[in-house]
Specification:
Length: about 140
């Protein structure tokens, strides 16, 4: 493998370069599915933690333990949410770059339809090589 997982992940969270329509669709859905799995897992762990810890805890410790579990869940969800927002923004910026536009033009979400269905600029543009060609030339 050339680069490995760290190179792949660095590219997904980067605001540099271009993203094809396929990458936008696939990684958009995969990112959304992963965040939903993380949320479901977090709530499952919270429920499991409540059952295991609170059932054996003395009454005077149950409220602080429950509050601690809920705080840990909120921290976990906050980290997952921040990662998802960064990933989504980077993917959107790279897709805008493929259309030869600045990523900041989509801050309000006005170009979503265009991001989903419009082909990117053929060949290299000011943001980098064509993601559909191997060497950056027109496919």
């Amino acid at each position: 493998m050339n680069g490995g997982l760290d190179t792949y992940l660095a590219a997904r969270f980067s605001f540099q370069g271009r993203a094809s329509r396929k990458e936008f669709w696939v990684h958009g859905y995969v990112g959304f599915a992963l965040i939903m799995l993380a949320v479901a897992a977090a709530f499952g762990l919270l429920n499991l933690g409540k059952r295991m810890i609170l059932s054996d805890a003395p009454m005077h410790l149950q409220m602080p333990l429950q509050a601690s579990l809920e705080a840990a869940l909120l921290c976990l969800l906050g980290v997952c949410g921040a990662l998802f927002i960064w990933f989504s923004a980077a993917l959107t910026f790279r897709r805008m770059h493929d259309l030869d536009r600045s990523g900041f033009q989509d801050v309000l979400g006005l170009f979503r339809y265009q991001l989903l269905f419009t082909p990117g600029t053929q060949g290299p543009n000011r943001f980098g090589p064509d993601p559909l060609s191997k060497d950056g030339s027109v496919p």
